[in-house]
Specification:
Blueprint lengths: L5 H11 L5 H17 L5 H10 L5 H14 L3 H14 L3 H14 L5 H7 L4 H10 L6 H10 L5 H11 L10
Helix pairs in contact: 1-2, 2-4, 3-4, 4-6, 5-6, 5-7, 6-7, 6-8, 7-8, 8-10
């Protein structure tokens, strides 16, 4: 995609997102943010294709598509509902984790309920959900962060401490 026109790259990318090979679809999602940066204006076809990949049968493709949607910074209206569905309903925790991260990157209030719900998921998803709370405010966010400070998983606790700017008791500045 380095050489050639943006139009050629977009055409090749459009074929790649529907390729029967999982690795090709995953790679297409991986390069979507770079392709989006090459364009002079937002490409709704790119966003539509990435949203469609959120329902791919392979969880690694879904994870890559969710990440790309968070990176592309596309119009939230078609993206956020699809990411919310992925974050709350996908069977694979990796896909849910990536969708939650993308919701945090986008920061649209319509995604907050899904991020809060993810704070009760598996440890890796909880950790990502705590970090995804960064752009949000409100009592639900405060309560989720307070709960995360006492989570049984140390990485979830650490994420909450980092987000809240809490210095660990064992740290010294001597």
């Amino acid at each position: 995609m380095r050489a050639g026109s943006a139009r050629d790259a977009a055409a090749a990318w459009g074929r790649a997102v529907t390729d029967p090979d999982t690795a090709v679809r995953r790679r297409a999602a991986d390069v979507a943010p770079a392709l989006a940066r090459r364009r002079r204006s937002p490409d709704p076809h790119l966003t539509t294709a990435l949203v469609a990949l959120l329902t791919d049968p392979d969880a690694t493709v879904v994870e890559a598509a969710a990440w790309a949607l968070g990176e592309v910074g596309a119009d939230a209206s078609p993206v956020v509902p699809a990411l919310v569905a992925c974050a709350t309903d996908h069977a694979d925790p990796l896909a849910r984790e990536a969708a939650v991260a993308a919701l945090g990157a986008i920061g649209d209030p319509a995604g907050l309920a899904a991020v809060l719900a993810a704070c009760t998921d598996k440890p890796a998803v909880r950790r990502r959900a705590v970090l995804a709370l960064a752009p949000f405010d409100g009592p639900g966010v405060d309560a989720a962060l307070a709960t995360a400070l006492t989570d049984r998983d140390w990485q979830v606790r650490q994420a909450a401490e980092d987000l809240l700017g809490i210095v660990a008791d064992d740290a010294t500045d001597d």
